[in-house]
Design brief:
2 domains, 14 strands, single chain, alpha/beta, 38% helix, binds pyridoxal-5'-phosphate, seven-stranded mixed sheet
Length: 389
């Protein structure tokens, strides 16, 4: 797919350099894995970081495609404006999904959408219902608001227990602020099928909102999966969260959005900070249109994921079938010291995801990064089959 990648970034970064020149970037930055307490955050220089294989945060290793870089570069002339011109991003998202603009709310990443849902829907002592492990930043935010969380265990095959979720919602009906359904789930990569989503929505009282986090939607191949956007069109109490961080490689630029019925979004809008940067809105419009680059990222990602997991399986390590840009491998020993071993070998891997403390989450990087991961894996865990299990 030449013409999309590799990308000439000179024009875009030329623009960025001009804009941030006065900031005098220091050679050393504090970089840390999500969720680590401040005093434990490792310090490393940017040069050290650049040399590492970055398989810890489910990022897109290729960055935004050329079409997106061009749109953002051209939009740099609006860097001094707060909110407008915005490239028509809200209209573009609405058109893309066949909804009205009143059904769209932008966020500085879908993380902001999740935060806003917590603030808006977990008031008056309301609880969130979901599974564990899932995207734990959501639960952390709920905890920071002193909201209770009903976290249900995954089933033996690491899928989400929909009947248990339905029971939990019914038992706590008046106290439930919303249900969180991460689909595909992070960190397992397992999907909730379209049938199960329907089962959940039909099984709970219809006034209970369900936040369906589709951050990894674009990587899914399983035909049993479907987006939940049609429920928004039906007016069901569903919020779909999407992001440009993954398939479009814009994690550092911060853009995501929610799709939901108007009344539900109107409960959330007062808590939106409006802190999205002016340039990424133009990049988002270009990203929606660049389906060729999305297809390329999906193809390369899914092939590398398959290749890597086959190698690990051949060594005697079980992997969880994933539909995302990451997967989990069962190490059969505590994961925390192994994460540290990888770091020493220049490979950043995912954080621990309690209670799955023997599973390592590995993001799919470039072919080179995955090669370095496999070399390190064989050095750190050489006795896959001998270790039994
Ligand atoms: N939801 C899930 C499931 C994620 O894994 C992430 C990031 O890794 C996010 C939301 C937040 O992504 P962003 O704020 O970059 O859109």
């Amino acid at each position: 797919m030449s013409g999309i990648y590799p990308v000439s970034r000179r024009r875009f970064f030329g623009g960025v350099a001009t804009a941030v020149g006065a900031l005098s970037l220091k050679p050393e930055l504090r970089l840390w894995s999500q969720g680590a307490p401040a005093q434990q955050r490792p310090r490393r220089t940017v040069d050290e970081y650049d040399l590492m294989a970055k398989l810890g945060n489910n990022e897109n290793p290729y960055g935004p495609p050329e079409s997106v870089l061009k749109a953002m570069t051209d939009a740099f002339k609006y860097a001094n404006r707060y909110g407008y011109p915005d490239g028509g991003i809200t209209e573009a998202i609405a058109k893309h999904h066949g909804v009205k603009t009143e059904n769209v709310m932008l966020g500085a990443g879908s993380g902001e959408i999740l935060d806003i849902a917590c603030i808006a829907l977990l008031q008056d002592g309301r609880k969130v219902v979901g599974v564990e492990p899932s995207y734990n930043i959501l639960y952390q935010h709920a905890a920071s608001l002193k909201a209770d969380q009903i976290k249900l265990p995954l089933l033996k095959d690491y899928s989400q227990d929909i009947p248990a979720m339905i029971r939990a919602v019914k038992q706590n009906h008046r106290d439930v602020g919303f249900v969180y359904l991460c689909n595909p789930n992070n960190p397992t990569g397992r999907i909730v099928s379209a049938k199960e989503v329907a089962q959940l929505l039909d099984g709970i009282p219809e006034d209970v909102p369900v936040l369906i986090d589709e951050a990894y939607h674009h990587f899914v191949e399983d035909p049993a999966y479907a987006t939940s956007v049609p429920y928004v069109l039906e007016g069901r109490q569903v919020i779909v969260a999407r992001t440009f961080s993954k398939i479009s490689g814009l994690a550092g630029m911060r853009l995501g959005y929610a799709l939901a019925p108007r009344e539900l979004l109107n409960r959330m809008r007062p808590f939106s900070t409006g802190s999205i940067n002016a340039v990424v809105k133009w990049g988002g419009v270009a990203a929606l249109n660049d389906t060729a680059s999305q297809a390329w990222v999906k193809k390369v990602n899914n092939e590398l994921r398959a290749r890597t997991t086959v190698q690990l399986n051949a060594m005697g390590y079980e992997t969880i079938p994933s539909e995302g840009n990451f997967f989990m491998v069962h190490l059969r020993k505590p994961v925390q010291p192994v994460i540290e071993e990888f770091r020493k070998k220049g490979v950043l891997v995912g954080r621990p995801f309690p209670p799955m403390l023997e599973h390592l989450r590995v993001s799919i990087g470039t072919p080179d990064e995955m090669g370095r991961f496999m070399v390190a894996f064989k050095e750190i865990l050489p006795n896959g089959k001998a270790a039994g299990g």
